[in-house]
Structure to design on (494 residues):
């Protein structure tokens, strides 16, 4: 095994081009487990800890450019307003020690269906900035996950950052596990309201071979909210609409039975989380709407 | 490969390090510092917790090569680290001192020293763990001490929820955590009195 220690982003790209089989290591919270248990003996380890660019983030007009190695702790502390769904999801990652090391780049690189960041990224809307010596491209998050622990990266590409849309409405994230810390999701659900486009987006974790959106559920809810004038009148979402949304989210799952839970349980739990996160975010939207349109106001 | 880094305030060099080796292995097997415990090797138990550039991490998940040029504090250097923090300065703990380090606190009933030789006093967190009876088999203790000390550094007056959160990555299979909670509350209270 060789340990490659590039001092800059350019050096890292050159190293990856020269050694496409090199395994990038940043927080090490996935890679080191595999090495410690002898599940993996990469020819090259490509250490990204010295590439400072990967630890920075920029808040832009419409999106946040989040460096691939920004630890979950930093996201929780600094980006709660811009990326509320991802901040909540970050807080459910493992433990303080792990959150101090791990970041979204690793979650994307590993592309486990159980990665906690995925549902939040899918719901918010995001693009993965993949870079190689050949150039840079942005992969829409919907096209990024290609199979169980597989992603759309080419062998010579590294993840530079992820561009995540800034929240324009309430977002939520929910995760099922046996306790509050150190839990791999049995299943997880992310939901984001996008009032400007009058749309809702979802993300489901650990309930299909890849993280997925519940597209039929989104389309149903978008139409129902539109028809009822809900975005304008801010009424409570009717229980029948919430139930239909939850059922469609459960139907979007393609889970397996495993040691953490059965397929049936996962489907059921995703439905419950879909209904709850919809209720939480919608109540928050109504509250914000009410606050900006006080009684007797022009609204 | 060779790895140069700072351990407990002193420069150290580890030789013949395998490229896939963890920081934990280097500390225990190459530098002779067995205070950081090796249990799960997958970041689940927190018993290998050390400070890396001030930040608590699981040393089993840090590749040895990643600590080149960086600063690590282990439980063996915790008392000195806490002392320097309150007084300023950075004398550190030599490898030899760290290797010979043993808990030499004051007896919780008599208040007298239990050690046969004069040593640096324990950090407030270490003494509080002894006084509160928060140590049973002791295997999880080093990780808990490092994690609890770091929390008290940033949050001198923690709520119970803060303590539970800060220690949520450290498993103890003996105590049921109540004595550990007592110990951290005690350390926080004593720290408050001292200010």
């Amino acid at each position: 095994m060789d340990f490659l220690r590039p001092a800059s982003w350019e050096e890292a790209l050159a190293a990856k081009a020269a050694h496409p089989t090199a395994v990038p290591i940043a927080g090490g919270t996935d890679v080191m487990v595999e090495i410690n248990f002898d599940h993996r003996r990469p020819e090259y380890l490509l250490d990204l800890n010295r590439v400072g660019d990967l630890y920075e983030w920029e808040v832009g007009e419409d999106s946040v450019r989040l460096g691939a190695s920004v630890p979950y702790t930093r996201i929780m502390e600094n980006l709660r307003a811009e990326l509320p769904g991802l901040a909540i999801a970050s807080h459910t990652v493992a433990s303080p020690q792990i959150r101090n090391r791990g970041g979204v780049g690793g979650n994307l690189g590993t592309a486990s269906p159980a990665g906690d960041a995925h549902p939040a990224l899918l719901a918010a809307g995001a693009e993965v900035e993949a870079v190689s010596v050949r150039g840079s491209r942005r992969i829409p998050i919907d096209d990024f996950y290609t199979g169980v622990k597989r992603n759309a990266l080419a062998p010579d590409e590294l993840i530079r950052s992820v561009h995540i849309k800034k929240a324009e409405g309430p977002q939520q994230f929910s995760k099922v596990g046996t306790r509050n810390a150190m839990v791999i999701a049995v299943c997880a659900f992310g939901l984001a309201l996008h009032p400007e486009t009058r749309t809702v987006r979802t993300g489901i974790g650990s309930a299909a071979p890849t993280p997925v959106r519940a597209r039929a559920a989104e389309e149903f809810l978008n139409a129902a909210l539109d028809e009822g004038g809900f975005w304008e009148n801010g009424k409570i979402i009717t229980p029948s609409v919430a139930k239909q949304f939850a059922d469609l989210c459960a139907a979007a799952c393609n889970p397996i039975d495993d040691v953490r839970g059965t397929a049936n349980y996962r489907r059921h739990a995703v439905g419950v989380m879909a209904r709850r996160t919809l209720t939480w975010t919608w109540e928050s939207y109504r509250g914000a709407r009410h606050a900006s349109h006080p009684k007797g106001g022009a609204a | 490969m060779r790895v140069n880094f700072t351990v407990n305030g002193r420069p150290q060099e580890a030789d013949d390090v395998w490229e896939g080796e963890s920081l934990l292995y280097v500390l225990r097997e190459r530098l002779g510092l067995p205070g950081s415990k090796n249990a799960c090797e997958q970041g689940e138990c927190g018993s290998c917790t050390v400070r890396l550039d001030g930040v608590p991490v699981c040393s089993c998940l840090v590749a040895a090569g990643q600590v080149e040029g960086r600063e690590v504090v282990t439980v063996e250097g915790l008392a000195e680290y806490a002392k320097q923090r309150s007084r300023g300065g950075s004398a550190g703990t030599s490898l030899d001192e760290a290797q010979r380090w043993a808990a030499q606190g004051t007896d919780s009933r008599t208040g007298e020293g239990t050690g046969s030789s004069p040593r640096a006093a324990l950090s407030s967190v270490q003494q509080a763990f002894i006084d509160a009876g928060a140590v049973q088999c002791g295997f999880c203790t080093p990780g808990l001490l490092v994690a609890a000390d770091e929390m008290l550094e940033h949050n001198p007056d923690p709520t119970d929820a803060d303590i539970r959160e800060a220690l949520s990555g450290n498993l103890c299979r003996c105590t049921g955590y109540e004595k550990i909670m007592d110990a951290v509350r005690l350390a926080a209270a004593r720290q408050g009195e001292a200010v």
Notes: The CA atoms of residues 63 and 165 of chain A lie 4 Å apart. Chain A has a mean pLDDT of 96.
